[in-house]
Each structure stands twice: as structure tokens, then as C-alpha cells.
């Protein structure tokens, strides 16, 4: 079997977004985001490769909520970096600024003291990347939209029945309210991905890896990028 693993050294001059999980059921929930200067952030790590399979030593890990398809406890235990697990906070990691806001995993009632889903925003290389986790609201609140600000790239679920997303258009409603230019599906399937593209914009399919910068988004055209996870450790 040919080994195919994420690239950990950024030589593109852009921000890199990559798949990383070994999961067969939720292969696109977890991402490695690397700034142009090499700062490494892991989002929602689940079913992660071992250290022997991938020498991954991130500068920070952010986890939207503690469900097993979004967190790998063994991986987390091995790390000595900054870890933010479902916490509403602001912090800097080298050249990346990160902040988070509370949301609801299912329904519209948000527990602001102990949210069951947290949206993380990474400000990196002039871009604002939001990992929406498993948000299951029917609509964004005005407070959430104001707190998020202008989002360039959204990592967003569209077919998770636990959040009431299956056979529902509310995921598309949320995206329309946030208005990112680039949408990367997390919980998704071929049917929902095709529907995302039909409703929201042009569909592109890439394997594992995407490099992007402000110039890439200069045309203002909305795109949906389905990142197929074909990694082999």
C-alpha cells in the first residue's frame, strides 16, 4: 500500500487546509491548518494517526465539542501544546489569532455557560476560517453573526442526523446567514454535497489538500470544495 500522509511543512506561501483522520465513517471532520509561516493548528481530531505514522506536533488543537467523532483522547493526551476543548476564549498561537463563540448542537437553545458546541474562528494570513463543529440551529442569532464577523472559509456539516441536518435545509440557511466565500463540508455525503453545490455555488473536488490565500478569493465567487480523504498511513 502506497503511503499517503498530510504535508507538515508549508512551502506554498499560502494557508494550507488538509484532511488527517483515519476514520472511515467521518473522514472529513478533522483538519490540519498551517499558516504560510508554518504554524500548525489541528481542528476536531478524531481517529488520528499514531506518532509513528505521522510526526504531528501541532502548535494548538481546538475541539468544537467532545463527541467521539470530533475528539481522539489518546491523541490529545500525547500533546503538550495549547488545547482548547469546547471553551469560549480568545488566544494567540504565534501568527494565528483564535477565538470561539457558543452555539447549539441541536435546536436553538444555547447554553452560554456550558455550550454543547463551540464555533472556532482562526484568523490566519488575512483569512478568517470558521470551524462550525456540529452546529444544529435553525438560524444563527444576531449575536453570533456579529461575534463571528466576516468569515471567508467555513468548515460546516450538512448531513448529520444527530443535529437534525439530515433531509433538512437548515445547514444551507446557516451558511447563507454567515455568507462565507468558500465552504468545506464536514459531515456530508455525495447527495448532500451535490445539493450544497446546487444551492450554494460551484463544486470542486480535491484530495486531502487545499492551499488558499486572500488572492485566491479575490474574484468573490462562492465555491464549495469537497475534500476527499484518500490518506493511507
Can you describe this structure in just a few lines?
This protein has 233 residues and is an alpha/beta fold. It contains four helices and 14 strands. The chain has an eight-stranded mixed sheet with strand order 6-7-8-9-10-11-14-12. Strands 5-4-3-2-1-13 form a six-stranded mixed sheet, with no helix packed on it.
Could you characterize what this model shows?
This protein has four helices and 14 strands. The chain has 233 residues and is of the alpha/beta class. The protein has an eight-stranded mixed sheet. Strands 5-4-3-2-1-13 form a six-stranded mixed sheet, with no helix packed on it. The longest helix has 11 residues, at 190-200. It is globular, with a radius of gyration of 16 Å.
Amino acid at each position: 500500500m502506497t503511503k499517503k500522509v498530510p504535508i507538515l511543512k508549508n512551502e506554498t506561501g499560502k494557508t494550507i487546509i488538509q484532511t488527517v483522520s483515519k476514520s472511515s465513517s467521518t473522514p472529513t471532520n478533522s483538519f490540519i491548518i498551517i499558516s504560510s509561516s508554518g504554524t500548525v493548528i489541528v481542528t476536531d481530531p478524531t481517529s488520528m494517526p499514531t506518532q509513528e505514522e505521522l510526526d504531528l506536533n501541532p502548535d494548538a488543537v481546538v475541539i468544537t465539542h467532545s463527541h467521539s467523532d470530533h475528539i481522539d483522547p489518546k491523541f490529545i493526551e500525547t500533546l503538550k501544546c495549547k488545547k482548547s476543548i469546547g471553551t469560549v476564549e480568545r488566544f494567540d498561537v504565534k501568527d494565528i489569532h483564535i477565538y470561539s463563540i457558543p452555539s447549539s448542537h441541536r435546536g436553538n437553545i444555547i447554553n452560554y455557560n456550558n455550550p454543547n458546541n463551540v464555533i472556532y474562528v482562526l484568523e490566519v494570513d488575512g483569512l478568517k476560517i470558521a470551524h462550525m463543529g456540529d452546529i444544529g440551529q435553525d438560524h444563527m442569532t444576531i449575536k453570533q453573526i456579529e461575534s463571528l464577523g466576516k468569515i471567508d472559509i467555513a468548515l460546516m456539516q450538512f448531513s448529520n442526523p444527530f443535529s437534525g441536518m439530515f433531509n433538512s435545509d437548515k445547514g444551507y440557511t446557516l451558511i447563507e446567514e454567515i455568507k462565507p466565500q468558500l465552504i468545506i463540508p464536514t459531515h456530508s455525503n455525495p447527495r448532500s454535497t451535490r445539493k450544497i453545490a446546487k444551492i450554494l455555488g460551484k463544486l470542486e473536488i480535491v484530495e486531502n489538500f487545499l492551499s488558499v490565500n486572500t488572492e485566491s478569493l479575490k474574484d468573490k465567487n462562492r465555491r464549495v470544495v469537497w475534500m476527499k480523504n484518500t490518506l493511507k498511513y
